[in-house]
Amino acid sequence: MKTSIATVTLSGELPEKLEAIAQAGFDGVEIFENDFLAFDGSPADVGKMARDLGLEITLFQPFRDFEGMPDALRSRTFDRAERKFDVMQELGTGMVLVCSNVSQAALGGIDRAAADFHELGERAAKRGLKVGYEALAWGRYVNDHRDAWEIVRRADHPNVGLILDSFHSLSRKIDINSIRSIPKEKIFIVQLADAPMIDMDLLYWSRHFRNMPGEGDLPVTAFAEAVASTGYDGYFSLEIFNDQFRGGSTRAIAADGHRSLIYLADQVRRSVKTPIGVPMPERATVKGVGFVEFATDEDEAGELIALLHTLGFRKAAVHRSKKVTLFEQGNIRILVNVDTAGFAGAAYAVHGTSAYALALVVDDAGEAYARALALDAEPFRQPVADDELEFPAIRAVGGGLIYLIDDKSPLGRFSEIDFEAVSATRSDAADAGLLHIDHIAQTVAYEEMLTWLLFYTSIFKTGKTPMVDIIDPSGVVRSQVIENEPGTLRITMNGAENRRTLAGHFIAEQFGSGIQHLAFSTDDIFATARQLRKRGFKPLHISPNYYDDVEARFGLQPDLTERLKAENILYDRDEHGEYLQLYSGTYGEGFFFEIVERRGYRGYGAANAIFRIAALKKLMRPEGIPKDAG
Ligand SMILES: O=C(O)c1ccc(O)c(O)c1
Ligand SMILES: [Mg+2]
Question: What reaction(s) does this enzyme catalyze (predicted)?
Fold first, then answer.
């Protein structure tokens, strides 16, 4: 698949945009007229800049309010077009996008529009240029690609074709099967954009909320499949109007865009069986979390290890060559790394004590790694001793790592190969009944949420649930769940917009995104709570007012409410069952542990988050969260 992106998608000046586009691996670029007009160089300079970076200029756009003008305005409209053609020839691009007329002056009529396009085609042909017609979802007379296609068909000119834009068609819920019968040579270019499902004015939605394919809720893949079924083998070009992207990191957004197209091509290749995109292994099935690794130092390790002990973990093994200790309970493994050398040391130096790495157990680590790299993930390597395992690894949230391990290779036996077991002591006899990692909560800056959503969902067989707003006493935190069907990988991603929220404070003080809490599962939270108490665990104190409310809200038996209150356990329920949650206090700059018992429940206790956040913030005062820092 040939990939392209419109300059309007990115922030910055034109040269910066072009560089980021080339760097991200695109083949082509659409020059959006305003980007060109705001730039000081000549069209020839822009053309040279693009070509020097190896980019083809796929399109110059948009040319507005062209077709169906009354006679008094018609010749001036053609003059305007000739001026655009001059610029295009200097730029060195062969195609212009004409979007459907929105002018009050425009006259309707398919034949009138077709005649205008025929003439424009004649004029374009003289210069060796092509004209593509796109139906804007809010066009005055033409707002449906089926009508635009009919106009193009009647214009009957080899230099006039159709431009499809997934947003315009999907936002109006136009049947995409209508694309399948369009001859591929009449589809000049295909623009792609997704968007979150929001019920609002089409123009406003389009100009502010588009996002990359796979980041939103529109069936962009099905749209691309319909296009591919025609045999179309031209450019797929991203055209994303998004306020956040325009203010975001030029390089990061360009990289997300490239990843979104590779992912899309992979899905289309599998379903339509066309040779689109690069063959790669399927999305990796995650069977579980192999371990979570903390980076810390000798001084701070003590407090973390003490906390792990109160949670019922036992020291199970030590690394043969590195200063890494393995703690275990049920199927949960936690590594505590105090090595000053290597990546863990660097992570500690930047972030302080933090859970910087995650191992995911997949069917085939080599295949998962190959897929990750095909999707532009950044590989990670560091030297390992001869007799030690080298985990395939990629960079992940907050500059941390994801290690890929599997059971079919020696990687699955890392705890025997790289580690030496230590014998159990008497105090290890009874654990706290913790079984699995239920979920991993990562806190990221709000503008990074889509990046990581696309990262996880494109590489691993996971899906997302709708974003929810969590009310922090100092602002809103957006929360997005990424999970797989069997629940063996559950990630909650919290996006913070300001640093006064608990999540925002965590990012500011940790110097970046990262894992903010780990939730462990138990199948008897009351028994676990009892064990934890014996071990000296201090649960997060929940206000008694909460229990009055929860009893009334769910109609709980008073004795259950009393038991919940006695153990500081939070309660929630959905149509599938009940959820019980118990929290630790905060550790460091806002890290904490959670213990959950799921009785069929599928969610994450979003309704309880406000109480949990308030309680955690109370713990962190007075020196914790600045009351009114900006
Ligand atoms: O919002 C617009 O005006 C606009 C312009 C050009 C396009 O290709 C498009 O999809 C929208
Ligand atoms: Mg468009």
Answer: 3-dehydroshikimate = 3,4-dihydroxybenzoate + H2O
Q: Which architecture characterizes domain 437-620 according to CATH?
A: Roll (3.10)
Angle (CA) 463 396 192, round 5° = 50
The verdict on the CB of residue 418 being under 6 Å from ligand 1 is no
Element containing residue 530 per DSSP (H, E): helix 525-534
61 CB near ligand 1 (under 6 Å):
yes
Q: Which atom of ligand 1 is nearest to the CA of 61?
A: 6
Ligand 1 lined by 97 (C-beta under 6 Å): yes
Homologous superfamily of domain range 286-428: 2,3-Dihydroxybiphenyl 1,2-Dioxygenase, domain 1 (3.10.180.10)
The phi, psi pair for 334, rounded to 5°, reads -120, 130
For ligand 1, atom 5, name the residue with the nearest CA.
62
CATH code, 2-272 = 3.20.20.150
Q: Which of 99, 172, 201 to mutate to test the pocket of ligand 1 (most atoms within 8 A of CB)?
A: 99
CATH topology agreement for domains 2-272 and 437-620: no
Q: Please give the model's pTM, rounded to 2 decimal places.
A: 0.95
Give the pLDDT confidence of 348-374 residue by residue, as tens digits. 988 889 999 999 999 999 999 999 999
How, if at all, do strands 468-472 and 475-483 pair?
antiparallel
Write out the H or E segment, with its range, that includes residue 307: helix 298-310
Q: Is residue 341 very low, low, confident or very high in pLDDT (cuts 50, 70, 90)?
A: confident
Q: What is the pLDDT of residues 435-466, one digit of tens each?
A: 999 999 999 999 999 999 999 999 999 999 88
